[in-house]
Specification:
mainly alpha; about 0% strand
């Protein structure tokens, strides 16, 4: 029965997300059909929870079955009407993009047809790897999300606890149970309520709180991350390397562990990847119409980031905006975008971000909630923290969390520096370096050093960036080892 309730729980948010994505594409659809549904699920669920949050805090609407379904049905009907009105104006879909980064950019079906020409032994290897990956993910997910009671700290003390309180109280509760049974104030409420709201919505629709039911959504976010990376790589390297990159992502031990446990870092990672990859596509394409579609989608995805986790508001969103500003400056300077296009893009980002960030920040201020991860940013003292660099080096290079991802990436950035830094791939490279290197001062000079010394926050920060890293590594590998007669080249302009 849990499978039925989870399908019912994500069905309307996914349709809402699909409609928004399709409308933002405008007259030039640029996404693959399945990709649009997956992106619709990711962004639609977060957007629906934001609207639920907004209506709840402004009207007092109860967080019950009628409340959730009422909002979702209303959004579906309104967006459906807009879609029906605008649908006849759409052009025929064309996902075969013309990129500045010279790439294979085959349609998936065309590229899959090319796979049929591969040798029998290679087909067998691909089939074995796909089968093994599927079995591994399903067994791990079923074991930790369905058969194992929640035991991880943030799950018990934050995501599931808040979700269950929302479900029981039918409202966003800003206190949590104390050890003696009384309600005491808690800093966990500084986190955006998206994840617990989603869990509470599944429970409300099902009529009871069920741990496997509310936890299985984490596996869906993990599968969405794998899928979006695959489709993004399909545009850049073709389907064979896309399969390889997706396999690498599925093989990163700590990413798999978090993807099959009820933590929220993979949830954040898929939103980060969506925002950065859509921006990359918008800058990489030579088509003005395709660029506009991608940048509208990127603006929407970026706007939702601050409503996922606190670090997205403080770290990832500013990094994306910095990369966006540099990209627009470069596009205008090289006459690839007009000033009007650049201004329109800035307006899209500004309006979308304001619509979501302003209500959330106002709610935080009105309820005296901090802006750090359960810590106030104003309490930070600056002082050298010993042993941080050695702890970071150990986690990065000497443990099995990331396998050879970091050494391989460093090697490729050096060997293929022209592609990594002088093509639109620099959007991924720049974003990663800004976020990754930007966190080092926090660990080396503030009390956040414990996040590195105890290998908690530092490792989670990497998890949030892993899909971006896989995109960089796979594209650079594809240029190092072109497959078959396909010759990958860079158009330097």
């Amino acid at each position: 029965m849990s499978a039925i309730w989870i399908i019912l729980g994500i069905a309307l948010p996914t349709v809402i997300g699909w409609l928004i994505v399709r409308l933002l594409e405008g007259k030039t659809p640029v996404l693959f059909k399945l990709e649009r549904w997956i992106l619709g699920f990711v962004l639609g669920l977060t957007f629906t929870m934001f609207i639920t949050f907004l209506i709840h805090i402004t009207t007092g609407m109860g967080l019950n079955r009628m409340g959730y379904l009422g909002i979702q049905l209303t959004l579906t009907i309104l967006l459906g009407i807009i879609f029906i009105i605008k649908k006849p104006k759409y052009k025929i879909q064309n996902t075969n993009l013309n990129y500045q980064l010279s790439i294979i950019n085959s349609l998936p079906l065309v590229a899959l047809a090319k796979l049929a020409q591969l040798s029998k032994s290679l087909k067998i290897i691909i089939s074995i790897l796909i089968s093994w990956t599927t079995i591994k993910i399903l067994l791990t997910g079923i074991t930790f999300l369905i058969l194992t009671p929640p035991f991880l700290g943030d799950t018990v003390d934050n995501w599931n606890l808040r979700g269950k309180m929302y479900f029981v109280e039918e409202e966003i509760v800003l206190t949590f149970p104390g050890t003696q049974g009384e309600l005491v104030s808690g800093d966990i409420n500084t986190y955006p309520p998206t994840v617990p709201l989603a869990k509470a919505s599944f429970a409300a629709i099902a009529g009871n709180w069920n741990e496997p039911l509310v936890n299985i959504i984490h596996l869906l976010w993990y599968l969405a991350a794998l899928s979006l990376v695959f489709f993004a790589l399909c545009r850049v390297t073709g389907v064979l390397w896309a399969l390889g990159g997706t396999y690498i992502l599925s093989s990163i031990p700590l990413y798999l562990m978090h993807g099959t446990n009820p933590y929220a870092d993979v949830f954040l990672s898929v939103h980060i990847f969506a925002a950065v990859s859509l921006l990359f596509n918008g800058i990489a394409t030579n088509s003005t119409d395709q660029r506009r579609s991608f940048l509208r989608l990127a603006a929407f995805a970026t706007a939702l980031l601050p409503f996922t986790k606190n670090e997205a508001l403080i770290i990832h969103t500013p990094a994306i905006l910095l990369v966006l500003a540099i990209s627009l400056w470069w596009m205008k300077r090289s006459n690839k975008m007009s000033l009007k296009e650049c201004v329109n893009t800035i307006i899209w980002y500004a309006v979308a971000l304001s619509a979501i960030v302003i209500p959330w920040i106002m709610f935080k201020l009105m309820n005296d909630l901090t802006f750090g991860n359960a810590q106030s940013l104003s309490d930070i003292d600056i002082a050298w923290q010993p042993n941080v660099l050695s702890a970071i080096a150990k986690n990065t290079l000497l443990e099995g969390n990331w396998l050879l991802l970091f050494p391989l990436m460093l090697f490729l950035l050096i060997v293929q520096k022209s592609i990594a830094f002088k093509t639109p791939l620099a959007i991924f490279t720049g974003f990663f370096l800004i976020v990754y290197l930007g966190q080092f001062p926090l660990y080396m000079f503030t009390y956040l050093s414990t996040e590195a010394l105890y290998q908690t926050g530092y490792a989670r920060g990497i998890i949030q960036l892993v899909p971006v890293m896989i995109m960089i590594v796979t594209v650079l590998l594809a240029y190092c080892v072109p497959v078959g007669s396909e010759k990958l080249k860079v158009k330097s302009e």
